Amino acid sequence: MSFFGFDATLPRDRGHSAHAPGFGQTPDAFAGLGGGAAADDDDAIDFDDTYDGLGDRLDEADDAFNDDTFGRGPASQQSIGKDFDFAGQTSKISNTIQEEQMLYQARQAPSQQRAQPQHQHQHQPPKPSKPSRTGYESYHDPNYIPQLEARADIWGLKPKQPTAPTRPPENQAPPPEPQPARKIVSLEEVEAMIRAQTLQQERAAMQMQQQQQQQAQQSQPPHVPAYPQQQVPHGQLHFPGIPGQGQFVPHILQRPQQVQQQAQQQPPQQRSGSRPQQVHAELPAHSVQTPPTQHPTILQRQRPPPNDPAIQQQRNAQPQSAPQRPPSQPRQILQNPSRLSGQGQSMVQPGMQAPQGPRGSGHNRGPSYPGMVVTNPEQLLHLSKEDREAFLAEDAKRAKRNHKIAQLSKDNGLMTPQDKNFITRIQLQQLMTATGNLDEQSPETVLAEDFYYQVFSQIRGAPRQTPHQPASQFAQTYLFQTNNRYGAGRRQGRGADNHMQRMEQQVQRAVEAAKAKPKAKQLTIEGSLGKISFSNSKTPRPLLSMKRPVSHDQHPHKPKVSVADRKETLRNIENVYMTLMRMEDHERTIPGQLSQDSSPEVIQKHMEWRTKIEALHKQLWEDIKIMEPINPASLTPHPFIAILSHAKGKKAIPRIFRHIDEQERITILTMVVVHLDKLNVVSHGVATPEQPLSPAMRDEIELFLHSVVPPLYAHIFESPLNIIIGLLGLILERTNVHIVARTKVGMSLLIMLISRAELLKEPPEINVVDWENWTTLYNRLFDSVEPVLPAIFPGSINDTDDMYVWQFLAAMGVGASPEQQQRLVLGVKDRVMETVGVSKALPPEMASARLANVNLFMRAIGLDVELLG
Amino acid sequence: MLIFSFFKTLMNTEITVELKNEVSIRGTIKSIDQFLNIKLDNATVVDELKWPHMSSTHDMFIRGSVVRYVHIPPDKVDIGLLEDATRREAEKSKAGAA
């Protein structure tokens, strides 16, 4: 409570906004004092006894947040809440305050007032705040002139009245010491000043009262009725014109004192009446009653309290009223706590005024009362016109500001501290993640929390570079995919081109090699094998076999995949991915390189790491279901092939290949080859000019070519002839070559195998047996393919995506015997002529591109498109 | 946090935010928080005729909860990576739940 009182004294408080009713409350602190004094007499609680002085130690710098801290408490508290700021802004004004005080004193120079201040410093007046007034009240009155100066002397309340009786003489005796107040620089000093003033006033009042009281006490009873009436009007307050108000105010303040005094003097009689008051005084609300007068002064402009006169008057009046008031005041407080302070100031009752008048004559009541400042026009009268205007303006300004503050603060307390904590936590959390404080978190943690962003930035060189090593690995893992992502789109470009280029290069190399070789040699070799003759005689056979495959083509069986199978497959794929990611994560944690002098711990770690990676490797191998037994009769595709039928399954292949060893790669390659015509990209990948592929299927095929084929190709490219032979044999035996040869994927595989074989043909050591085997297989392949030669072009003549077909033809032509070459040419002659014809109508660039494709084939068989021109 | 992580990679790219009140706003994404509140610069309303009152606003802060869709340039998304990130997220939440 005490701290409220102090704060209230600040000039700012006074200005408190209309919204904050409590603005005037600050004065209450003194009220407590008065009450305390009264209490002593009655055996009620003595303020001094109760007050622990903690209020003095409070740090008011943070009072600005009182509202936040305490929420919307009683009206009085609210008003007080934000304006506390002695150390801050108030201190800045201290000089001004002092000046004003000086001015005032100089003008009015009431001798009595000055005398009082001296001793009072010792007292600790702080008391609970009282209800406040709006602060705008005064402005309602057109004639209102804010009280400029308040004298400490005026304040009628004594903190320690109980002791006061003895003191009064002392107080009066010491001459006024107004100056000390001026010197005040620090808050403490200011506060001390205020206290002193109040004390002085109180003492003065005490003295007066005592004298008067004794006389008046007995007469009080009659007054009693009057008081209640008077008090009621207080609510209305601010009767600018009424001089008497000021006087009354003092009474109110003094009442407690009076009561006490009275009590002392007339214990039995008055006590009954006074007790209630005292009790009230102790309570915050009660204190309001007495303090109100004081507060206004303090709050509004800490000018020196005006004067004794008021006090004296009060005292005079008080004796009478004191006993009566207690009851009435409480009511007011309860009714409108906020206003009490204001009321207290304004509390001038018509009836009262009259009596006061006489007393007041001796002193300048109006000016003397701090509280009066606002309400009493009299005070203004004393001022010069300029000053008055200045004061008014100042006051208006203050009120405006307070109003603003109140508006701003109207939502204060809306959030509970818990709410705030919650928000703060979230914000901090966000900060943590947003800034990705890598220093505090391990890279792994960051990755786990923010995987996409971290990896993405590493791969794409996003703004923030993190010093993680894994970057390159992520790039390996994902960049590749990234390029492949857009099947037929621009993206695929690089990866696809790469692959296609390599294939083309290989074909070309094979062509070149074949050209370099004397044709005769081929012939002789083949002739020696006796195949030439065979081929002639066998020519009819392919024709026979032709129909069967074609009929097959017409009805590609589309195995219906049940939902359960599909789900199972998808689950398998996910397992594969999870294992892959675990492996990749694990690879990142690889301990340092082993060396001769590695410490046992390092070796140990390394061992553990290897053990784990092997376990994961094994798990991966199981996940891809590659080792499931092959059941040709089964209607459902092999699990591994099923995996390849999904886009994400295809995408997993390159990543899988990085983690498996050579033998396992061969296994996968074999598995793909064996099931070549079961792959959905093959079985559903047969296109005709009449029935082009659906875009979806085209995407699937592209994806397959860009994700699955390259690793296979890389492997084939390094395989020895026997493996090539084995693979080709598998294709011929286990798959429907007609379908395979009419699809891009199948054809690509065939190109790889044939061209690889052609390249292997020349080098130093050729295993004759292997070569014979190869030739046999080649002839079988040729015979199988020949019937569908006219159909191997997927689109019409205007379909430019036929390079792979020409490559295939070239690859076939390179290894073909002259007789086979003739048959090749026969098979595709129409297409060649058409292409050449169409290309003449095309722009040069496109024409040359298409002719180059044709030429690839033509040169493989020793011809050139030029010859056709 | 996956979506947040994802959007962080879209910083300074042009997106179109479709709000639940049918307003579509195109702008450069300046920042985003974990509530997916979005701050847009150079923002314009897609259908100026229908929402003329929005035409004077060029910087916007959009509360995440009012966003229905966000249209993103496809080349700004690494699908493979996003898939893996999703897998990790799923596994993490699964582990957390278990």
Automatic annotation (TrEMBL), chain A:
Ranges where the mRNA decay factor PAT1 domain occurs: 1-866
InterPro entries to which the protein is assigned, alphabetical: Pat1-like, PAT1_dom
User: Keywords for this entry?
Assistant: Cytoplasm, Isomerase, Nucleus, RNA-binding
Similarity remark: Belongs to the PAT1 family.
Compositionally skewed regions (Low complexity) per UniProt: 106-119, 201-220, 254-279, 309-323
- Tell me the protein's name: Topoisomerase II-associated protein PAT1
Q: Where is the composition biased (Pro residues)?
A: 165-179
GO MF term list: isomerase activity; RNA binding
Comp. bias regions, Polar residues:
287-300, 334-348
List the GO terms this entry assigns under cellular component, sorted alphabetically: nucleus; P-body
- Asked if Protein transport is a keyword of the record, the answer is no
**Subcellular localization, as worded in the UniProt entry:** Cytoplasm, P-body; Nucleus
Residue numbers spanned by region Disordered = 58-82, 106-141, 158-180, 201-374, 532-562
GO biological processes:
deadenylation-dependent decapping of nuclear-transcribed mRNA; P-body assembly
Q: Which organism is it from?
A: Clohesyomyces aquaticus
Q: Name one Pfam family in it.
A: PAT1
UniProtKB/TrEMBL annotation, chain B:
Q: What is its main location?
A: nucleus
Write out the GO biological process terms: mRNA splicing, via spliceosome
Keyword match Signal:
no
Query: An example Gene Ontology cellular component term from the record?
Result: U6 snRNP
- Any idea where this protein resides? Nucleus
Annotated ranges, domain Sm:
2-76
InterPro entries referenced in this protein's UniProt entry, alphabetically:
LSM_dom_sf, Sm, Sm_dom_euk/arc, U6_snRNA_Lsm2
Q: Does the keyword Hydrolase apply?
A: no
- Sorted UniProt keywords: mRNA processing, mRNA splicing, Nucleus, Ribonucleoprotein, RNA-binding, Spliceosome
Extract the GO molecular function terms from the UniProt entry. Answer: RNA binding
The record's listing under Pfam families reads:
LSM
- Similarity section: Belongs to the snRNP Sm proteins family.
What this chain does, per the record?
A: Component of LSm protein complexes, which are involved in RNA processing and may function in a chaperone-like manner.
Designated name of the protein: LSM complex subunit LSm2
